[in-house]
Design goal:
- It is built from eight helices and seven strands.
- With 262 residues, it is an alpha/beta fold.
- The protein has a single domain, classed as Rossmann fold (3-Layer(aba) Sandwich).
- The longest helix is centred in the middle third of the chain and has 28 residues.
Length: 262
């Protein structure tokens, strides 16, 4: 049956930034599809809630409290092997940078954005590759970029540049690691996570976001989780080096920040 292609029975995934939002949704979706999951973020209390949800669907979770901006990502890979005996899927979900007006975007802020959104992920990928290659079957790396990596948006210079680099990193890494490891990315649009709750709580602002989105709604974490499940599973086995764009059809930004002209 075609639905069998989406199963992750007895596979093992690492999901970074898994305490809330997209990371939480992806970790739970993988568990519902049959995977055991190593989950990591900086906040143990959030991870405990996700671990409970994973165990509720009959799969195993292992918590690693870590700040991947500074900590050794090899600890995540070691945890997957020690706890579950294999590694099949790596999701690089950690990232971000605060919106900053152009003249406040210092060289240091660009370097920090690149380090957090690209370098940290690369370190995890390099640590994971030898272990991924030890396990037979298809292997998948999924990078979470952003629609701001392809669309211009005021005050998103550091973030958008880093996410654009991460998207192309995905294409380059896919070629380097083919045919044994697939590498793809997801570039979400405006998704209703805690990061968007502050602006979405304003009905007028939320309405503007929705009206500027061709599908006339904001995304939900499950939209991204479903895309990640496709890429992680055999259903996506003929996909590598691609950036999927679950963004409601955006061809221009739907989030206009009130930044003054120069």
């Amino acid at each position: 049956m075609i639905l069998d292609q989406f199963k992750l029975d007895d596979r093992v995934a690492i999901v970074t930034g898994a305490g809330r939002g997209l990371g939480r949704a992806m970790a739970i979706a993988f568990a519902e599809a049959g995977a055991d999951v190593v989950i990591t973020s900086r906040t143990r209390s959030e991870l405990a809630v996700v671990a409970a949800a994973i165990e509720e669907v009959g799969r195993r979770a292992h918590i690693v409290v870590s700040d991947l901006a500074v900590d050794d990502p090899a600890a995540l890979v070691d945890a997957a092997i020690e706890q579950f005996g294999r590694l099949d899927i790596v999701v690089n979900n950690v990232g971000g940078a605060m919106p900053t007006p152009f003249m406040n975007a210092t060289a240091a802020s660009l370097e920090d954005a690149f380090a957090f959104n690209v370098t940290a992920a690369h370190r995890l990928v390099q640590a994971a590759v030898p272990r991924l290659l030890e396990t037979p079957g298809g292997k998948s790396i999924i990078n979470i970029t952003s629609t701001m990596g392809r669309l211009p948006g005021r005050a998103f210079l550091a973030y958008g540049t880093a996410k654009a680099a991460f998207a192309h990193y995905t294409r380059l890494a896919a070629l380097d690691l083919s045919p044994r490891i697939r590498v793809n990315a997801i570039a979400p649009g405006s998704i209703l996570t805690s990061a968007l709750e502050v602006v979405a709580a304003d009905e007028k602002f939320r309405s503007e976001l929705e009206q500027k989105t061709p599908l006339r709604r904001l995304g939900a974490p499950v939209d991204i989780a479903a895309t990640a499940l496709f890429l992680a599973s055999d259903a996506g086995s003929f996909m590598t080096g691609k950036v999927l764009e679950p963004d409601g059809g955006l061809i221009s930004p739907n989030l206009d920040l009130p930044v003054p002209d120069l």
